[in-house]
Amino acid sequence: MKVHIILDDSARWNHETGQQPQSRVWCRSEGGRDSGLTGKVRRIADDDEAADLCNGLKGRFAWIREMQDIQHPGAKAQVRIAVDFHRSIPLFYAINGRDVYIGDQPDLIRRSLPGSEPDRGTASEYLVLGYLTGSDTLFRGIKQVEAGSIVTITDGDDGPAAETTGYFTYRHHYRNADRNTLLKDLDDVALQTMQRSIDHADGRPVILPLSGGHDSRLIALLLHRLNYRDVICYSYGKQGSPEMKLSREIAEALGYRWIGVPYTRKKWRDWFNRPERKRYYKKAARPAGIPNIQEWVAVGELRSGGTVPDDSLFMSGHFGDALVGGKGIYDTYTYREHPETHPDTILRHIFHYHYYLWDWSAYRDVLEPFFRDRILRLLQPIDAYPDSPSACEAWNIRERQSKFIINSGRIYDFFGYDWLMPYCDPDYMRFWLEIPLAFRHDKNLYTSYIDRLSPFNTPTHNPGKAIIAVRETIRKTPLFRPSRALYNKWAARRRRKKEYETHPMAWYGMMRETDFRKLYTGSENINSFQSLELLRTIFENGYLSVDDILHQSYKALARSPLKQPDGERPSDDSRIPS
Q1: What DSSP line would sit under 370-392, residue for residue?
Q2: In sequence order, what are the residues at sequence separation of 6 or more whose Cβ sits closer than 8 angstroms to the Cβ of residue 243?
Q3: Of 104, 150, 241, 556, which has the fewest beta carbons less than 10 angstroms from its beta carbon?
Q4: What are the φ and ψ backbone dihedral angles of 265, each rounded to 5 degrees?
Q5: pLDDT digits (tens, 9 = 90+) for 128-176
Q6: Residues 209, 301 contacting (CB under 8 angstroms)
Q7: Interacting residues of 174 by C-beta distance below 8 A, sequence separation 6+
């Protein structure tokens, strides 16, 4: 077995070769190179020790260890690959004959695999989800190491074979405690988490993307409470937007400097067509999922304008909402009417809240069983979750958060900044694993904690609050279904008419208005257009339409039952009810 290590950001990795040339270690951790982690990885003897090491580490990390014992000819060569709980430093691998390729960019690995073609079967999931679930990428034969996992590739008589071990799974185990106890414990773990973040900052300027929501606000409050003063807050969007106004009020109330980066359609068109954006897309591992582009213009302007020092640490509130009862757990229906752990409830909500970037209903008879099997396989065993909302949350954290939300860190990497997402702290995550469903409903424990902590009365930006309140009021009345249908129809028509000009981020300016209006039905968002554009690029077919992609995927899956994750096509009666 010959192992080829292909690292695009090799300067960020620490590499050591042992006394035997075939014994090599590569490590990357939070803040850059860390020889201490390299030594720990070198001492690993087996899978259990590898899992113990990963479970005990804090912050971002990824490592590779190759082991070939040339002194004992009968010993099998192995290489282990690991990423952290969130896959914040992605790694990819491929096996071709007796050659094993490992790297941080699937595009680079593909150059060594001339037979690795884009997979039309899985393209449908990429199109409607924005990323691929499990270990797949869009290139056949190239896999990604999943969040909280270790991949061991062992040489054998028939060639190398890979085996994945999950060392961490996000499953709740509730504890019995009253509200006041939980609030006190939340305060303790939040302060410990922020102190670790401050220790990592080590006096450097902290740059905080501050929105009108709760997650970034809590970071600002905790930084202020722990007396960290070198903080610059920034916000972005259309000039005068409510969220930018709230962001400025919070920063000024805490005595922090605030920078506003106004977004316009013209500015988005300019930034999107720059060569830097294309380079960023390649570094953001596009065959695994679409790049997160929301902060692209803001961070680019901060960098090009010299507004923030080069040694700054970007500290963002990403991931916070997923733990505390945000969209990872969804709505009152799941909480109060169907909290039991049931596949149909889980699938209904994951389909509704995630598989929606483009309308795939015309191909449901084949695509739905394909998507269904992929979702349920990743959540097995289903009965290990205490309720359906917790299973939905676990899927969200494993898939969307690790492959899209946390992947936004690639923006900070691209512009040369160190970054940190405090809510990814393992101890903070483990705290929320013990919080019962009732306290996560509508984020009630979390929001009451922040409200108690706030020294000022600044409301959270929540533009849909009134609509949600009306919806919950009439949910159990005969008015609910017809009013929901009428509202959805009205809202889609209104968006079709005004979205290009009025969107608060102005980012549809990256497209020509004529192209936007040809594709937009009122249901899509910016991620929809990204998934379509990237598939067109990857398949090297500029005229590929949404229907082309779905139709080709439909045909590939219909004639190839091996596309199903378990190797079998499900029967009709296994499909969820509409």
Answers
A1: HHHHHHHHHH-SGGGSSSHHHHH
A2: 211, 212, 235, 237, 461, 504
A3: 556
A4: -65, -35
A5: 999 999 999 999 999 999 999 999 999 988 889 999 999 999 999 999 9
A6: no
A7: 386, 434, 435, 436, 437
Q: How far is CA 166 from the centre of its chain?
A: 18
- Look up residue 423 and give its DSSP letter: G
| Mean pLDDT of the 171-184 span | 95
**Residue holding tokens 């039952």?**
561
Averaged pLDDT of the chain: 87
Q: Which residues contact 164 (CB under 8 A, 6 or more apart)?
A: 135, 145, 146, 149, 150, 151, 152
What per-residue confidence (pLDDT) applies to 362? 96
Tell me which amino acid residue 471 is. R
* Cβ-contact 7, 13 below 8 angstroms: yes
Q: Report the Cα–Cα distance between both ends of the chain, in Å, rounded.
A: 49
Of 4-18, 237-251, 561-575, which one has max mean pLDDT? 237-251
Q: Which residue has the tokens 């305060």?
A: 187
Measured over the CA atoms of residue 25, residue 30, residue 32 and residue 36, the dihedral's sign is negative
Could you tell me which of 161, 40, 25 has the C-alpha nearest to residue 96?
Answer: 161
Coil, helix or strand at residue 448: helix
CA distance 194 to 216: 12
CA dihedral 400, 390, 420, 300 (to 10 degrees): 30
> Can you tell me whether residue 356 is helix, strand or coil?
coil
Residue 315 has a pLDDT of: 97
In this prediction the pTM is 0.89
Rounded mean pLDDT, 398-409: 94
Please give the structure tokens belonging to residue 278. Answer: 């294309």
Q: How far is CA 452 from CA 187, 189, 316, 434, 537, in A?
A: 11, 16, 22, 22, 49
* Pairwise CA distance, residues 334 & 320, whole Å: 21
245-303 pLDDT, tens digit each: 999 999 999 999 999 999 999 999 999 999 999 899 988 878 999 999 999 999 999 99
Residues whose CB is less than 8 angstroms from the CB of residue 501 and which lie 6 or more positions away in sequence, other chains included = none
Distances (CA, A) of 53 to 46, 60, 83, 102, 110: 11, 13, 11, 21, 31
328 pLDDT more than 80 = no
β-strands 231-237, 206-209: how paired?
A: parallel
Query: How many degrees, rounded to 5, is the angle at CA 403 between CA 154 and CA 41?
Result: 40
